[in-house]
Amino acid sequence: AFRTTGESLEITFREGVTAIPETAFCDRSELTKVVLPETITSIGKEAFLNCTALSECNMPASLKEIGESAFQNTGLTALVLPGCTLGDSAFFCCSSLKTVEIGEGTENIPGQCFRKCTALESVMLPDSVQKIECGSYSDQGAFADCLNLKTVSFGTGISTINTSSFRASGDAMEAEFREGVTTIPDHAFDKCDISKLVLPKTVSALSDQAVSNCEALDCICIQAPDCEIADLESTIPADALICGYAESSAKEFADTYGRRFTVLRTDSEIICDLNGDGKTTLVDAELLIRFIAEDADVLAELKIDSPEMLDVNQDGLVTLKDVRMLLKSLKTE
After folding, report:
1. What is the pTM of this model?
2. How far apart are CA 195 and CA 150, in angstroms?
3. What is the mean pLDDT of residues 160-187?
4. How far apart are CA 203 and CA 257, in angstroms?
């Protein structure tokens, strides 16, 4: 209907429209922006396939279904989805897409859903996601070939991460399982060069096959002192630094198999005196925030013996997570 219409095309659907039909705007390379109404419930198969210039498209809370290859090979840069059903390859090869946040209600990330999103850096999954799939072949994982993927946050409902779901994704990918997750699926990161893994206090066991094939793993943080770690040398890759509490199963595993180990501090053990006044206060938190914000003037105000003092949670990075931990320690006091 709109074949070769205009050099730059923007489309707005008014209230009342409930569905975008299959292949409705397929191959419209001139389409740059789409505005969807709050009445929309479904986007059909291949509706915006190969709309390579499409960089803006809102996803209303009313949306319940996105069909197979609906946005494949489009120019979307950021994605905030409501809880909905996703079709295979829904966002396959969206090479400009950098961030993905999926809303509560989505239960499954199908094969190739975000495969070859080569600019993708961060993914936030809701507690409702139970399964991350791979397609018929080993290279068809939901997040396979996402070469710049840096962080993935998993919710409490995750039970299955299929082998190759993250195949060849991110040379330094970090995975964080949020508080409430109790188990890590076996073979969760097979064929993925994951560098860091954070397990919350709610994870009660680490099986012998959960991370055993993650040869690129640099660091695993086990926050549950009594986490049951399978008593096999191969359970945790040999070169991975193990982080845990001084009195913990993680420390026992490290001692048994001669692994590198670093002690996690409890909130009450945090000492972060950045201004040299002999105590940890909100002033130190402010200095830390300014450092993260790259305020050049803050360097003259820091009175620290080592840059490591800025890394409150000892994860090797100085981020807002350190600020949160510092503030939490003040609240504890």
Report:
1. 0.78
2. 9
3. 89
4. 22
